[in-house]
Amino acid sequence: MEIIHVSAECYPVAKAGGLGDVVGALPKYQNELGHLAKVVMPMYKTPFLYAHEFDVVHKGSFGMGGSWLNYTIIKEKFNVLGFDLYLIDINGLLDRQKVYGYDDDVERFTSFQIAVVDWLSKWNHRPDVVHVHDHHAGLVPFMMQNCFAYKHMATIPTVLTIHNAQYQGWMGWNKSNYLPAWDSNSWGKLDWKNNINPLASAVKCSFRVTTVSPSYLEELKFNSNDLEALFEYEKGKCSGIINGIDDLVWNPELDKYIDTQYGIEDVDEGKLINKEVLCKEYNLDIHKPLIVFIGRLVDEKGADLLPKAIGDAIYHMQGQMNFLVLGSGDFWVERQLEDMKGGLMGYYNSKIGYNEKLSHQMYAGADFLLMPSRVEPCGLNQLYAMRYGTVPIVRSTGGLKDTVIDYGTPDGSGYGIRFNDATVGDITYSIHRAVQLYSQPKRLDEVRIKMMQIDNSWEISTGKYIELYKSLQ
Ligand code: ADP
Ligand code: GLC
């Protein structure tokens, strides 16, 4: 089957979070099964662009609002990612250094999507599936079905995967003229509560909708930033497919970013050497359990709880543990995490910013990874942590609930630490449990080996996506 993934992110081309990891991996594994999966995304000015060679494969133009925009599609020459990669260049809009965070993101991602649909409409054959990811690609199914110039593609199956329903790409109806001429009887397919809502539109128009874990799909019916009724209404076409791990990128036996590679047989020694490097660099004590947080410093991730939880844990448990935080996001949280360093020197450190290498070093060198998420559609951090023998401490929500079993579960099947509420009290109690586990080396060793043996590879989930596409042919 020929599958076109449309996404704002794709690792290693451009990544802001887990969406990039998934879109950088899933097509590769689909191709390994004999399919022809391709990715189309905006051409940002990232290091990947300058380090690789491209061919121009298409040039086109379209009107958006009052402007006329030219676009160019370039294709990476040598299939270095294991799939065909197409980048859309729109001068002045997409050719920026960051993926998100500009005042004109609505114009940027709308123009990207129009270019995708316009390009597809020029093909002389039909792809089998157009698979759109999150709201940045959410208007594509609508345009394929309702814009006069593109309606001939209305029967091509479209699949939406929701990685995060918190962000929906809202825009006022005053921007409805951004879209190429469309059938005004279909306005209801764009509208949600008096705004154009690209995510809601994709839920309505896609042939099938998936979320990145089954539990998250259930939660969306009760908590989805105002789309609850829509998910309840459309539940018949929705299903949850959990993400996998790209074993070529996230594998402690092969990982080039870490100081010493290791596997199940030498996990204790391997982790200790990596921990030593981290502790030296960040002035922490190698003899204490090292608890880390890696991620976006936003409410969804419970990042605002970190300063107090870390402070309380160190104070009330007499500094029996160390913490290292890597992340960026809300200014106020960043500021608190930086300001705490002085008073907690030797017990806590942080690195504000985005640092791929350090993240790998932390998965390898830490003993525990904390994820107090309020919302977690799937979560990849806990999967990576487990692959590196690092015990996840997670809140029971979304994908965290689906992938982590508490080590205290009576039948002995568990391997992580789970807590119910995103509160400082629940977090510090879980940290206390982590310290206890750390003080029992034999038990910790069992847990590490059990986690590293779990098969969270992409093979299983790739098969599920293929089944889903087949059901639409
Ligand atoms: P989300 O996509 O919601 O941010 P995920 O758990 O799915 O959460 O994926 C996060 C991905 O981004 C992981 O690969 C994680 O290692 C990475 N990541 C997040 N923040 C940082 C950071 N500051 N530096 C390096 N990697 C980061
Ligand atoms: C999102 C979610 C995260 C998920 C990732 C990849 O950004 O917040 O939970 O793992 O997408 O699907």
Describe this structure in words.
35% of the residues lie in helices and 20% in strands. It has helices at 18-32, 47-51, 105-121, 140-146, 198-205, 214-220, 228-233, 267-282, 306-316, 331-339, 356-365, 381-387, 398-403, 424-438, 441-453, 458-470, and strands spanning 2-6, 36-42, 54-64, 67-76, 84-89, 129-133, 158-162, 191-192, 195-196, 208-211, 238-240, 290-297, 322-329, 348-352, 368-371, 391-395, 417-419. The longest helix is centred in the N-terminal third of the chain and has 17 residues, at 105-121. The chain has 16 helices and 17 strands. The N and C termini lie close together (10 Å). A nine-stranded mixed beta sheet has the order 3-4-5-2-1-6-7-10-11, sandwiched between helices. It has a six-stranded parallel beta sheet with strand order 14-13-12-15-16-17, sandwiched between helices. It has two domains: 2-244 and 458-470, 3-Layer(aba) Sandwich (Rossmann fold), CATH 3.40.50; 267-452, Rossmann fold (3-Layer(aba) Sandwich), CATH 3.40.50. The protein is an alpha/beta fold and 473 residues long. Bound molecules: adenosine-5'-diphosphate (ADP) and alpha-D-glucopyranose.
